[in-house]
Amino acid sequence: MDLRSLSPEFRSKLKEVQTIASRATRQETHGDYEQAFSLYVDSVQKYLYLIRTLQDGPLKEQLKAISSKLLNRAERIKSSRPELSLRAPVRDRTSSEEQDVVLQRSQKINGLSFHPWSPSHLNPVNDPSHPSQLASIQPALSPAQKQAFLEWKSMKEANPSLEVYKSDALDPTDIVQDIVTDCSLIAAFSVLINHAKHFQSQLHTECLYPKGPDGFPEGSTDGIYRVKLFLNGTERQTLRISRFVSLKSFNDLECISLRKHGMIFSLR
């Protein structure tokens, strides 16, 4: 089990749960089955917490196998000694494990999942399913848009001179509204841009990733831009935006755009 790439916090928690599992085995060997059962259940709960924090891979599968064996030991004690009063350990509601369970349960809103923000979101890795990932986050087009739709094209293909963001170039009067129902969205953009110009704030870009050294958005290596918001108790990835934009006839952009400055809002 190679732990060198894991955080010190993870290694510490893993060592803790391994110690608990060892204690459970010793108690079972010594015939203290009630204590052994309690420790087995406690170790399984802590292993499950660690498993949820891992990306898919060999280590995750190893921990799943270990927790499954520990659970089987607990179930064997319970089934073979019905005369015992076996109870799971009292859960500490303030523990990181219990808080994680609450945050995981609260990630579902109106049937959509908003997963807690992870450092891995800042360093995405391309894989064979990457094209399907991009396609899955393309927004639905309205009937009118579908009639005019020509193709999806990356921002750079649509206009090689486009920039993701230029802090001193944005002006509300430059925004081109493509859809009449986007009024409130355009108004919100205008307010945020003006606020940034007058108070040097980043309200309109603070939540958008990836970022460059200056703290402003930069080009994404995997073509997906991510939005981080504080939602239901923690920071979550609430939205993914593709680098692809929809084009209509004559190669016109079918999205919010700017009249000048060679920039684009990839929002529909």
TrEMBL record:
<protein>
    <submittedName>
        <fullName>Cysteine protease</fullName>
    </submittedName>
</protein>
<dbReference type="InterPro" id="IPR038765">
    <property type="entry name" value="Papain-like_cys_pep_sf"/>
</dbReference>
<dbReference type="InterPro" id="IPR007330">
    <property type="entry name" value="MIT_dom"/>
</dbReference>
<keyword id="KW-0378">Hydrolase</keyword>
<dbReference type="Pfam" id="PF04212">
    <property type="entry name" value="MIT"/>
</dbReference>
<dbReference type="GO" id="GO:0004198">
    <property type="term" value="F:calcium-dependent cysteine-type endopeptidase activity"/>
</dbReference>
<comment type="similarity">
    <text>Belongs to the peptidase C2 family. PalB/RIM13 subfamily.</text>
</comment>
<dbReference type="InterPro" id="IPR051297">
    <property type="entry name" value="PalB/RIM13"/>
</dbReference>
<keyword id="KW-0788">Thiol protease</keyword>
<keyword id="KW-0645">Protease</keyword>
<dbReference type="InterPro" id="IPR001300">
    <property type="entry name" value="Peptidase_C2_calpain_cat"/>
</dbReference>
<dbReference type="GO" id="GO:0006508">
    <property type="term" value="P:proteolysis"/>
</dbReference>
<dbReference type="Pfam" id="PF00648">
    <property type="entry name" value="Peptidase_C2"/>
</dbReference>
<dbReference type="InterPro" id="IPR036181">
    <property type="entry name" value="MIT_dom_sf"/>
</dbReference>
<feature type="domain" description="Calpain catalytic">
    <location>
        <begin position="124"/>
        <end position="233"/>
    </location>
</feature>
